[in-house]
Write a structure and sequence with these properties.
This protein is α+β, with helices and mostly antiparallel strands and 136 residues long. It has a single domain, classed as Trna Endonuclease, Chain: A, domain 1 (3-Layer(aba) Sandwich). The chain is 35% helix and 18% strand. The chain has 4 helices and 6 strands. The strands form 2 sheets. A 4-stranded mixed β-sheet has the order 1-2-3-4, sandwiched between helices. It has a two-stranded antiparallel ribbon with strand order 5-6. Helix 3 crosses helix 4. The relative contact order is 0.15.
Length: 136
């Protein structure tokens, strides 16, 4: 399986959530800032996906992008096989339907925040800032 096959599976998965998931596949042409293969939103939460062939790892530059995105408390998924694609599917179901995964519901995950080291799953924490003029 090559990266193109992985991207096709990711696209099929994201398209299956018609109306619930918005995603964009930026075309990298060498100008401006670099990013990952997919940027998307589900239920008000952003996410990013980097597709790789099985066994491949992100480049150093992609690793910096992943770290920068995660610093913004946004989930990043490295998809390089069917298992990691299933992790993405489970997270999307978790956020959309509040499905219980690993003892946490989607609503709990949106409010607590946790992350693993392998970029395969990340649960964003709810923002703790208040907008100027907003009631507390």
């Amino acid at each position: 399986m090559i990266e193109r096959d992985i991207k096709k599976k990711i696209k099929q998965l994201l398209d299956s959530y018609e109306g619930k998931v918005y995603y964009f596949m930026p075309v990298q042409v060498g100008y401006g800032a670099t990013t990952l293969d997919y940027l998307g939103f589900v239920c008000g939460l952003g996410f990013a996906i980097e597709a790789k062939r099985p066994g491949a790892k992100p480049t150093v530059r992609q690793g910096f992008v992943i770290e920068n995105i995660q610093q913004s408390q946004t989930p990043v998924f490295l998809v390089n096989d069917d298992a990691s694609l299933n992790n993405l599917r489970l997270w999307l179901d978790w956020v959309i339907n509040g499905v219980t995964v690993g003892g946490l519901s989607g609503s709990t995950a949106r409010n607590t925040g946790s992350r693993t080291r392998d970029f395969n799953t990340f649960v964003p924490a709810a923002p703790k800032r208040h907008l100027p003029g907003a009631e507390r």
